[in-house]
């Protein structure tokens, strides 16, 4: 004969329904999204899904999904808040499962029929028996000698997956030989307190977000708020339920027992299951709303990290990967604080968090268009995004203007320039914008000459745009036309390296082209020349602040080379917002919606950062930034790094 | 006797000093340079009557010899403080002066053409400003980058004015007619040289201006092109290549010229900006703000503090002089109203 002990109470039903629906919905969604991956992305997944790349993926899942290292680095308190929620809850589940497993293992080992009876009486367990010797009378007897073939009762403890969640209710009294039970309950209480720490931070964040490093927080929709409310209620409910149980049965840890001791057992006795029901209900509500709210990020983020780490990338059009990106956004609002359009222009509607929400809600029409177009594409939010979503790519996709027919607009390209024999030379591409800042191109020509480097100034007379401005505005096919022509010119020339002066062109040649020669920005090139000793420069005594251009710094990660060069020829001053935090000059090609006055305001904010300490000149490495600052001020000379180097050449 | 301090010895400052002195008021005229009338002496001939700028400068300088005018040159007043009954003037060396009333006539400076880098000023030798052109005309030596007689001279209007990118939305008012005047001078001095003017619209607002514009076209064959120049580049022979658009024809335009003359606009001078900020009378673009344009255009809203001339907005010389006379009368009224 076998006795089965099954922990069950009606209050688990909301939790069960929630869990089943949650997993059904997200698995359905994931399958649909995975089906939408493009052929290229499928190829990447197929060849990498089980490769060594899994290990870095898992590492990042732990680091960003649980520990939230990126947010911690940004702001300690904000990091603790996110970490407490993620890691705290995760550990509650894991430790709860281990605790219940250990407890059940002990009970199984003890085979105490008294214990079974007590569980049935006090905790409402279902006890039934199976086997040849079925005796329905047995369980009603108060006598516990059970005869089997070998004379020992076989009690089988079932452990459904929810036991860990409701463990304190289902096991009032730990089995006698389960010695670690006190340690477990104290650990569980510590974890609960940890989650409460996060909850406290979240409440502080509502009233005083600044101390968590957020100038402004996301404005959430009703359903997000509702879901958040259920999430926030889960833990107080759990505390209340466990405390009441602790009050009645004394099985709490240091925290729940302390709270439980405040209650009067006579009063709370009747409330016990109702409070456990509320706890379960909050879990259920949260689980059911999760796939339809921002909390969809919880699982999606992990999958996104996995896909990204094995090499999947955004494409020009919307793919399954895009859907993972959209749903991996937790709307934490970290992207809002750095946004110059938010900070300087007080426009709180267009930040990436809102773009993603509109896209997720499949909005169409003027509102989405307004959000998509009003962005400098300065990537300030991209470097802040704790999930690492490719925010500019999402915006470009939304701006896509596939339907516009411009056939014939670019036929002149083939006549414009003919291939040039530049075998063994460096090709120099000034770019449209450098033609408006001839100081830069003239300096580059002087530098090439001084370094005794033969070069081919490929767009000196007839310029063909690199295509990126079109790309940024969603004219994908048109940009491809320009790229095709430039690629053809460069490859036929036989040049050994491409040097560009404009970071916009640089990013385009580096990422959107597929050239067979190295592409460098002139700051990298000059740095190389100085290091190789091919360029002799003197050090002047000016103090110079450096503005990191968006496309060069955040876009391509070139932060050190410009600083190396500037330190070699002049005295580089630090500024408050530099490197990743640099403030866009406001006049880049990303935004078609801002008025000049608005751009000017952003420019002035950027300028203020560069001139907050006394300097003799402002240095930058982008013709757009140079023009922006130059137009603004009589007080400081604005120089490109190439110009400063050319001024300091020793011939 | 009441004392009035005037800051800036340009046409406005000198004219106001002269009027006040004639009316028995003691005037101290401060000037940051060692000599007065710096800006006017950069010019060759003045529109619309082609009178030599030197004559005007001489006449104005003569007025400084009158009794009751003390000139303090080489002193820059950087701050003004109202002491309850009088103004304290503080110079850059922390020395102080006292006056019952102060007239700010700190004037303008020209837009720094380096800020419009696409036009190549300071990079290509063939690109010059209207001030450089005045000097060439004055000395009768209009030469291209190679030191030869130019075959074509091109003027570009609105450099640093009516230009939202450089932040100056306003019209500098005098450049249109100056370009017409300079084009005529070029054609007079070099009959073989072509002259053309690129403009947004030509604002011939003053008496005789429209006639000058007509004469420039009919008698001197100056060509006028509506369009702005987007960029300039050097050619191998030291000339300047321009990219533009003829907006009347609706066609893009590429041309080569020996000299590109940038008609630089007027901005508030450094002194104007400094004093405006120090006394809280700074208005749009750093010019001095007055109480009301029609009847109180010399009052700054502060007791005994007045403004005249191009420190308020771009003006021609005769506008400045007239404005200074008006200011002198306002100051006299104010001084007379003070208790003896």
Shape summary of chain A: elongated
Number of H- or I-type helical stretches of chain B: 8
Count structural domains of chain B: 2
Overall number of structural domains of chain A: 3
Uncertain segments of chain A: 136-149
> N-to-C terminal Cα separation of chain B, in Å?
9 Å
Shape of chain B: elongated
Helix content of chain B: 25-40%
Distance between the termini of chain A: 101 Å
Query: What structural class is derived from the secondary structure elements of chain A?
Result: alpha/beta
Strand content of chain B: 25-35%
Mean pLDDT of chain A: 89
Mean pLDDT figure of chain B:
94
Oligomeric state of the chains present here: heterodimer
Low-confidence segments of chain B: none
Description:
The complex is a heterodimer of chains A (651) and B (340). Chain A folds into 3 domains: 2-292, no CATH class; 413-529, Rossmann fold (3-Layer(aba) Sandwich); 531-647, Rossmann fold (3-Layer(aba) Sandwich), CATH 3.40.50. Chain A has 30 helices and 11 strands. Chain B is 27% helix and 28% strand. Chain B has helices at 11-22, 38-41, 53-63, 130-138, 175-189, 209-218, 270-279, 317-337; strands at 3-7, 26-31, 45-46, 51-52, 69-73, 77-82, 87-91, 96-99, 101-104, 108-110, 127-129, 152-159, 194-199, 223-226, 229-234, 240-246, 251-257, 259-264, 266-268, 305-307. In chain B, helix 4 packs parallel to helix 5. Chain B is elongated, with a radius of gyration of 22 Å. The chains are: A alpha/beta (651), B alpha/beta (340). The interface between A and B is medium-sized, with 15 and 20 residues.
